[in-house]
Amino acid sequence: MSRLTPFLGILAGVTLGVLAVSFVGSRTVVESDASSKLSLIIPTLTPSTEMSPAFVEATSTPKKVVPLKKETSKSVEPLPATPLPAPTPTTNVPVPDVVASELRGALVNILCYAPAGGSIHSISGSGVIIDPKGIIITNAHVAQYLLLKDRGVDCTIRSGSPALDRYEASLIYISPSWLRANPRVLTETLPNGTGEYDFALAAITKSTTRDSLPSTFPFLPLATRPSVTGVPVVIASYGAQFIASSQIQSSLFPTVVFGSVKDIFTFGTKTIDVIALGGSAAAQEGSSGGGVADAYGNLVGVITTSTVTGATDTRSLDAITASYIRAQYATETGSALDILLSKDTATSVAGYASQLSDLEAIITTGLP
């Protein structure tokens, strides 16, 4: 295990460009292990209705992720929220194509438009539904846009192949630690960082079509223990780096690839907080908030950072682990994440509404 030095300021991020290397049945075996600097992966849109192709050079030099001495994975002690039973017999393990289909069904695209001419960029990112009530987990650097309704920012939740407008959503949690550490990411063209604290939860509240909300949503449960090196995984996102800006609204397809955990990292001592996934078609702008699922159909990671230059199979893609998200949520709130997930949507949305203005102020103070 290597250690990611905590980093106050900019996220490891890549502005998601617009790529749709898709999708149903597509298969990319991850074998390479790229090791270049990581960026956040959310494609930024221009202030109009189009998306810019990618993040531009950062105006300030970000702090680097500094790896420390390698340790064998055997010395790492996973920190599950609750102990899991022993794995079921292999005959009961879902085949990879089944897991890929389930992850694809739970995947969403989060598209947010900012007013033209302002300092805030429009963006496109990804998310995964982790509860049948329609609870989405994504990155804080994507979900922060849900705090900006008063500034004219309009976000929609999309799904399908291609992605189409489906729902509206409201925040039910965003890491205040991330907001305080990254107050200027909204106006940066190429934010960088480690992915620490970079998570948020939103609840689907309304249909934007003539159809009513479904009684249950397709979802993947959030894992309670992390994956270790060598474990096979399925990775899915709405990558957007390789399609034209004009195609995001009508031709954005999910990217689904098969890979494995290449390495593990920690923000602390021996907890597995970040998994490195190597290079694949998912290592592109727009993948922020995408999902990493294990062979049992559990969501074990949420994509946070990637390199975005060179061939995709030579890039680096990282995800924060579900166990890290659970532990950090408990640290920040004093409560288990499962308690929040057990509440009905209306209660969660109403209970969090009183905090939104204070959270918005953290990232908008100083903006024109």
A few lines on this structure:
By secondary structure, this protein is an alpha+beta fold. It is 15% helix and 24% strand. The strands form two sheets. Strands 1, 2, 10, 11, 12, 13, 14, 15 and 16 form a nine-stranded mixed β-sheet that branches. Strands 4-5-6-9-8-7 form a six-stranded antiparallel β-barrel.
Describe this structure in words.
The protein is α+β, with helices and mostly antiparallel strands and 368 residues long. It has one domain: Thrombin, subunit H (Beta Barrel). The protein has 7 helices and 16 strands. The strands form 2 sheets. Strands 1, 2, 10, 11, 12, 13, 14, 15 and 16 form a 9-stranded mixed sheet that branches. The protein has a 6-stranded antiparallel beta barrel with strand order 4-5-6-9-8-7. A hairpin with a 3-residue loop joins strand 5 and strand 6 (135-138). The chain is globular, with a radius of gyration of 18 Å. The termini are far apart.
Attribute tags:
368 residues, alpha+beta, Thrombin, subunit H, 7 helices, 24% strand, disordered N terminus
Overall radius of gyration = 18 Å
What is the straight-line distance between the termini?
43 Å
Structural category is alpha+beta
The strand count comes to 16
Helix share bin: 10-25%
Low-confidence stretches: 2-38, 44-91
Percent of residues in beta strands = 15-25%
Question: What summary fits the major beta sheet?
Answer: 9 strands, mixed
The CATH architecture can be named as Beta Barrel
CATH topology: Thrombin, subunit H
What is the helix tally?
A: 7
